């Protein structure tokens, strides 16, 4: 009898979907592990408490009518504000882009562009540019240009195509930029740009497109990289709403000794404007400062709590995030601003200074932080700017 009811429910679900052609699909966590239900739905990822899927309004209503619990999945955004290198020649890029601002250099061919400076100001501020050997850093972002001369990508996967697939092509450029700040190695000719920890193992999992970053893709990528043995996860993305899937995945990663670093967001200067997942107390939330170590006005703030204990919705550290030069998806270099750009400075520094465990490394970064506000543990910059000894 129970199986018959399930089959009837599936038929009802299909009927509802057919009569509801209006409106675009949204993504939901379907809190059921029923095999027939999965078979009737375009499953994106499977989790312990259900699966994620894109549902029309008709399917959503049909499932709710059947008593199936649904949770809408938030769509996050990458947290950068492009300044240069967005694919449009603007007359000031002759030293950082090829003439047409579009060609991708063949790794077998001679270099077609060089950076304005090999060690950008942000790398200098945190005293990076070397180290990180053997430490695995997983960048969850828009992908990466694996042919960039200054990047050696050790893992390239895609979480946006139902499950975790091979490939991490970066159509946006954000992920390539973030990756360079962490682990650009100057290229085999030594003429390229350097990141904070050039010797680190760079992993890239594509979780974002130009439209944004679905939280279930992010959660699946967190779990996947954790199971693969990453040490650090870097996420330059976020949104106003906490995702239960991402929260649970972060808890899982932390339980497996993974250090999770994420951007605070670009919604400042109001108190409490910090984004998730950076607002999660288990995450190192990174704000943005400029070359003078002044907090960027648009950098999201945490809550006003001055107890030197990292809690929910608090900023932990600050790092360079204004006009940051790094690798671009066209194979050359670009300048971008945002807490997206600040986050990889801290992720790279964690790789450079890895203390043997996530907790010890996090605590060490806090002790190295230069207080850039008289308030100490303040809502704008947290403990301050960490600088390697």
Distance between the termini: 69 Å
Radius of gyration: 21 Å
Give the helices and strands as they follow along the chain: HEHEEHEEEHEEEHEEEHEEHEEEEEHHEE
Strand content: 15-25%
CATH homologous superfamily title of the largest domain? Peptidase S8/S53 domain
Reported for the largest beta sheet, the result is: 8 strands, mixed
CATH domain class name of the largest domain: Alpha Beta
Helix content: 25-40%
Question: What is the tally of beta strands?
Answer: 21
CATH architecture of the largest domain: 3-Layer(aba) Sandwich
Query: What count of structural domains?
Result: 2
The strands making up the biggest β-sheet line up spatially as: 9-8-10-7-13-15-16-17
Output the CATH topology of the largest domain.
Answer: Rossmann fold
Low-pLDDT regions: 11-23, 82-108
Shape: globular
Mean pLDDT: 87
Structural class: alpha/beta
Total helices: the number is: 9
């Amino acid at each position: 009898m129970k199986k018959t009811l399930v089959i009837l429910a599936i038929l009802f679900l299909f009927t509802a979907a057919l009569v509801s052609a209006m409106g675009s699909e949204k993504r939901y966590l379907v809190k059921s592990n029923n095999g027939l239900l999965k078979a009737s739905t375009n499953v994106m990822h499977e989790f312990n408490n259900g699966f994620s899927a894109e549902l029309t309004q008709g399917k959503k209503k049909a499932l709710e009518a059947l008593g199936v619990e649904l949770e809408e999945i938030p769509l996050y955004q990458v947290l950068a504000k492009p300044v240069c290198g967005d694919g449009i020649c603007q007359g000031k890029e002759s030293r950082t882009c090829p003439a047409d601002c579009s060609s991708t250099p063949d790794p077998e061919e001679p270099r077609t562009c060089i950076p304005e400076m090999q060690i950008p100001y942000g790398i200098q501020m945190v005293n990076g540019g070397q180290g990180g050997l053997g430490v695995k850093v997983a960048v969850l972002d828009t992908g990466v240009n694996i042919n960039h001369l200054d990047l050696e990508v050790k893992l390239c996967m895609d979480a946006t195509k139902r499950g975790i697939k091979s490939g991490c092509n970066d159509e946006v450029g954000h992920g390539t930029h973030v990756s360079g700040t962490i682990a650009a190695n100057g290229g085999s000719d030594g003429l390229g740009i350097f990141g904070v920890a050039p010797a680190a193992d760079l992993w890239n999992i594509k979780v974002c497109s130009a439209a944004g970053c679905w939280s279930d893709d992010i959660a699946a990528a967190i779990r996947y990289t954790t199971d693969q043995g990453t040490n650090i996860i870097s996420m330059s993305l976020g949104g106003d709403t906490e995702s239960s899937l991402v929260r649970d995945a972060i808890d899982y990663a932390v339980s497996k000794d993974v250090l999770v670093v994420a951007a605070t967001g670009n919604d400042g200067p109001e108190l409490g404007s910090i984004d998730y997942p950076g607002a999660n107390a288990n995450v190192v939330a990174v704000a943005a400062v400029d070359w003078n170590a002044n907090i960027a006005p648009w950098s999201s703030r945490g809550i006003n709590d001055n107890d030197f204990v990292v809690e929910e919705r608090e900023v932990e550290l600050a790092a360079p995030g204004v006009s940051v030069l790094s690798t671009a998806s066209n194979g050359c270099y670009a300048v971008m601003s945002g807490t997206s750009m600040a986050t990889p400075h801290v992720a790279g520094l964690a790789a450079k200074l890895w203390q043997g465990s996530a907790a010890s490394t996090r605590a060490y970064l806090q002790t190295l932080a230069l207080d850039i506000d008289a308030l100490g543990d303040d809502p704008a910059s947290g403990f301050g700017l960490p600088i390697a000894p």
